[in-house]
Amino acid sequence: MSFPKNFLWGGASAANQYEGGYQDGGKGLACADLISGGTHTTSRQITSEIKEDLLYPSHEATDFYHHYKEDIALFAEAGFKAFRLSINWTRIFPKGMDQEPNEEGLAFYDQVFDECQKYGIEPVVTIAHFDVPAYLSKHYNGWASREVIDFYAIYAETIFERYQNKVKYWITFNEINTATLTIGNFLSLGLQVGETAFIEQPDDPEARYQALHHQFVASAKVVSLAREKYPHFHMGCMISYMPRYPYTCHPNDVLLAKQEENMHSKFCGDVQVTGKYPYYAKSYFEQQGININCTKEDEAILAKGTVDYYTFSYYLTLCVSADDNVEKNGHSMIGGSGVNNPYLEQTEWNAMIDPVGLRITLNDIYDRYQIPMMIVENGIGVSEDLTADGKVHDSYRIDYLQKHIAEMEKALADGVDLIGYTIWSAVDIVSASTGEMKKRYGLIFVDKYDDGTGTLARYKKDSFYWYKKLIATNGASLLEV
After folding, report:
1. Which ranges form a coiled coil (predicted)?
2. Which residue spans within 315-451 are E strands per DSSP?
3. Which of 50, 153, 251, 447: disulfide with 455, CB 3.0–4.6 Å?
4. 256 domain-assigned
């Protein structure tokens, strides 16, 4: 089985981790701009205003804003067929609810998409990627307010109209299901929490799930809008998919794995693909005493605005145990039932490396939904440095990518409809989870460090050349290292 002739090979990014230029071109303040740097051992800080004694990684990131022509030329050199990026909401509407859009911001993305067209690269655009406008967080409590649905819809319609001839692949929200986790609360929903440690923010499950519901409605509204006015668009959802394995074959472990995977990895996809809340989510809310205000109008909007294709991120699998006597490490992220999988290796950030899990995931998703799929994030975060002659010999990344892409090929042979793959990440960017540069994912090294120093010069890693050959041969060179 070979990859389809029109397979969308490429790389991915996110504005809040890559774009920089946070005060340039009339851009407003986003919630991401108020989150300080950190490491995998120290917490980030969320502040209500910019403080001079803290470093905020999103402010410069790796500066796509001033390097977009150089970077897109590098993507073209690698043979990218697609480039996944996000539009920064506050670059278009600085407050998120302005009367008129910011023309300078619109013009910037015009230039980005023109560069992509110049090289025949298909943009895959995420409308909202963890960049809720700070004004909406402060004055409306972010997505907890129903009013934000219409603000988002106006923003989406503005960019649809502007870029209708330049972009056809759209994703409504990045990893929308991270809202089911307390750690994703501020990033994805923009709930106003004041100054607190990033990991220790207070949590209100009912407010969080109500805010998520508003995102579901907003997504469905703009999907329906696109279907009516821009029928050539492809509208997708995006899920952070983390499969759960039972630690043993004990029925309690099997049941727990299914329950956790349902509520974290499947719930949001079920709503966005089928257009209704699944039975298990309704049961979970009842058991937890969570009341969601879902009107009849909301139900009709959800039913009408189902997505055309399914995209997801895949980095790791999780192992869970229901046995109180088994030592837990908290990796499950829900309930702290996670256990290290003895059959898998881990990254230095303790993520389980599981290529076969990707094949399992692809089959599970396709069996469930029967719509086209795209993997829009997959990669390995590693601390690495340049050699004296400006090289990065990342054989570990090549090994990681090779094994995962081999499982994609097997999934294609299984019969799944996989249309594209964009590596996380095309270029070194700021880690969303830890706020550090040390955790590098890119095919291209950027001279930028955790203390904010660096020239921002770009250097092609060994994996860049490996991926270039893979794309040129449409996967035929997969076994070559």
Report:
1. none
2. 318-320, 338-339, 345-346, 352-353, 373-377, 418-423, 444-446
3. 447
4. no
